[in-house]
Amino acid sequence: MTTGPGVGSTDPRGTAPEKTPADFSSAAPAEAADAPTDLTSPTSTADPTGPARTWSLQREWSRAFIFMLLALVLGAIVTIVGVRAVVHQMETTAGRLQLESGKVAQVAAAVDDHEQLGHQLLADAPVNRQAFMLQQKDISDKFDKAAEVLADPEDSGIQSALLGARQDWQAALAARGLWGDQVLELDGNHVAETPAFAAASKGVRDQLAGIQRSSLATLDRGLVDTGDLEQLLLIARTGLLILAVGATLYFRRRMVKDLMRPVNSLRRGVHKLQAGDYSHRIDIARRDELGELATAFNGMAAALQDSHRTLTHRATHDTLTGLANRAALTERLAASFETGSDLRTRHEGLLFIDIDDFKDVNDSFGHEGGDDLLIQLAARLRASVRSHDMVARLGGDEFAVVVLDNDDGSPATGPVAERIYETLSEPFLIGDHPLTVSVSMGVAQRSAETADAAELLRQADSAMYAAKLGGKARYEVYNAEGNQPKRHVHPVRSKQGSDTAGW
């Protein structure tokens, strides 16, 4: 191989950066049809500053909050006036208070009956003690139901009094051995304790009577004539409700349209950028602070897209010729060997090309002349292959072509190689000097036995070395039968049309 230290390229073989599969997702197999592009000019014309602001969210929402404050003041005034409506509320609660009084009366009657049986037990009279315990449970349930009726989050005094009465009643029974299972163990005459027990029970009944009086007194103080006031408050409250509902719907719509949608659009845009979609742009519907933010986002996205395109192109393309580089070629071949790849259903071949005596070109025309030759040769290679084949520069004066098989499954490497030689038979023009250049080419055809991309590259490289050793200006096909590789020499067809290729 004749790469030599005088090669005009600035990226010798093996120095191309290694990239991950995601870095080459944009590299199409039809690389041969792509010419080098100008990466210095941005693709987006988005103005990062954008048009001047024509509206202000701060001013708009300041007005909205002023309106809401006025609505709150109006509501406060109506609420102050509506305090008198509590009278109407008290009328509606009269039935509930009566129910409370009735529940308390039931508890008091049950406590009184239970007390009588307790006196009999203390006097060691024959009493059904199981019935006595069941009566206690029934009174406890009555206390619970009365507590539920008396439950008032605004005034817990009555409920607290009821709880105190229940605790005193239970304590009086427990102190004399009359509570729960104590009754079963009570033995003997305890008449001496009846006066104290009677006094304690009387205290409980007095507490219950006080609760009844408190409920009825509250009811009596609260009842007033509210007929006219009810109608007035109904009209005022209805109007305020309509105003509040209308304002709420209006500002909700404004918030969704002018705040939430733009913010969600920005959020989706950020997620798309994070996912690698640098072409995403945000629609600018308003000229306010969010509009300026969207404009800035679009400018940033355009800059990222240009930077990503430039970096991707530099990572996957040769800077001199614009062809795919070694890393892109390796990635392309490796992808075709992956499980599930569409290219696994179609075999392909690889052409490994090396310019003969390229050092002499550098010695005669200098590095600039060598670079000029490489650029012209790259253009001819692109013109010689099909749209779905891939041309790559491996470094120095080495090139490679990935050739997909024909649709009928027949190899296409031979016809493509012949076209390349026919194209290169025309002299190149280096400055004002015509120059005829020959190449040595190795051909490796992928088969079911080809293990991976590295093996296909080794086969093509080996065949190219054989072409060099066989006299240059020719191509050889690598073939393996069993474990013994065989190389078939195919001399180059001359420009006059002599066909000795043997294809």
Protein described:
The chain has 503 residues and is of the alpha+beta class. The chain is 55% helix and 10% strand. Strands 2-3-1-6-7-8 form a six-stranded mixed sheet, with helices on both faces. A hairpin with a 2-residue loop joins strand 7 and strand 8 (484-491). It is elongated and about 135 Å long.
Biggest sheet statistics: 6 strands, mixed
Rough shape?
Answer: elongated
Count of helical stretches: 13
Global Rg: 49 Å
Strand order of the largest sheet: 2-3-1-6-7-8
Series of secondary-structure elements, N-terminal to C-terminal: HHHHHHHHHHEHEEHEEEHEE
The helix content, as a percent range, equals: 55-70%
Average of the residue pLDDT scores: 75
What share of the residues does DSSP label as strand, in percent? 5-15%
Which structural class fits the helix and strand makeup? Answer: alpha+beta
Low-pLDDT stretches are 1-48, 482-489, 493-503
Number of β-strand runs: 8
Cα end-to-end separation: 24 Å
